[in-house]
Specification:
binds pyridoxal-5'-phosphate; alpha/beta; globular; three-stranded antiparallel sheet; about 350 residues
């Protein structure tokens, strides 16, 4: 099976397994785990933040950020196709008592300053008040769009000018940075917190990082405990995470492979696949008379795995465990299947 379902399906390398085996550890809830401490320091420096916190998943990190930033009952300005809106079980409402004010940001993937201004509400005896601006980069559901640092900064400045904090869901932050040739610290600077996943394109088996100011991370540490994410000898999973940070520049390979995959599939009668910004390819099978579910089932019989992402749209992700020859083989198989 050539598995394009997600960039989370990668298996940890031998080096990662060795690193886990040999990691010095301690009780991280007491702040005693040297491997966790090293990862948090490296990660914070990498994104230009004062501090960082290792968390079990991207979802938990995002939910923690919302809980820290926004007062219960306030509104979160967020794209209507954001991961936190579509795929986190309504967690903003469930975990933090927040209401969403969604915007269709279309192919820009980040709200314009005018959209932020328009969506913003001041709290009074009737209005909830805006508690947080949420930005996702790259944007998963919109096809791995890499927003420019200027677009992120413009949105963030519009929020901060109104005393609204900004969270960046950068599950694939480094894909965005590689695609736009931006230093991660520059991408993150206009925001108040950032979440990025070690377990996606970077290839770690487990874990994400939530970063921000000392004060933010201190508050987030309490919320992590509250949400059940305080772990003990967590250095075992942080050690592969440290190695994963070495995989940032090679994300360019995934982007090249995705471009190759999209071009190949786009050349197949009945299928269209626009050129991607990063490692997420979206295939529209309408003209082939196939729903996404049918398309996924067909290609699976030929040994290609993907995920339905809409009625007629299927997502294919490139990652560490597929190379250019897998991509070429997959295109041949998809053609045969359709
Ligand atoms: C995957 C993803 C998350 C959640 O990460 P998990 O580790 O799967 O919980 C959050 N935001 C975006 C944009 C994602 O793609």
């Amino acid at each position: 099976m050539i598995d394009f379902r997600s960039d989370t399906v990668t298996r940890p390398s031998e080096a990662m397994r060795d690193a886990a085996h040999n990691a010095p550890v301690g009780d991280d809830v007491y702040g005693d785990d040297p491997t966790i401490n090293a990862l948090e320091r490296r990660a914070a420096d990498l994104v230009g933040c004062e501090a960082a916190l290792f968390v079990p998943s991207g979802t938990m990190g995002n939910q923690m950020a919302a809980r820290v930033h926004a007062d219960r009952g306030s509104e979160v300005i967020v794209d209507d196709r954001a991961h936190v809106v579509l795929w986190e079980l309504g967690g903003l409402a469930q975990n933090s008592g927040l209401q969403v004010k969604t915007i269709d940001t279309s192919d820009r993937a980040v709200p314009t300053p005018a959209e932020v201004a328009d969506a913003h509400v001041a709290p009074d005896h009737h209005s909830p008040g805006t508690g947080l601006l949420w930005v996702e980069n790259t944007h998963n559901a919109r096809g791995g769009i890499a927003a420019s640092p200027d677009d992120v900064a413009a949105a963030a400045e519009a929020a901060r000018a109104r005393d609204v904090p900004v969270h960046l869901d950068g599950a694939r932050l480094f894909n965005a940075c590689v695609a736009t040739e931006t230093d991660p610290a520059k991408m993150v600077a206009p925001t108040d917190s950032v979440l990025f996943c070690l377990s996606k394109g970077l290839g770690a088996p487990i874990g994400s990082v939530l970063a921000g100011s000392e004060q933010f991370v201190d508050a987030a540490r309490r919320v992590r405990k509250l949400f059940g994410g305080g772990m003990r000898q967590a250095g075992l999973v942080a050690a592969p995470g440290l190695l994963a940070l070495e995989n940032i520049s090679r994300l360019a390979d995934d982007h090249e492979n995705a471009a190759r995959l999209a071009a190949g599939i786009d050349g197949i009668e009945g299928l269209s696949a626009p050129a991607p910004d990063t490692n997420i390819v979206r295939v529209d099978s309408t003209a082939a008379g196939l729903t996404a579910e049918e398309f996924v089932a067909r290609i699976e019989t030929e040994g290609v795995a993907a995920n339905a992402f809409g009625d007629h749209v299927t997502r294919l992700c490139t990652h560490l465990d597929v190379d250019a020859s897998d991509v070429d083989e997959a295109v041949t198989r998809v053609e045969r299947a359709v």
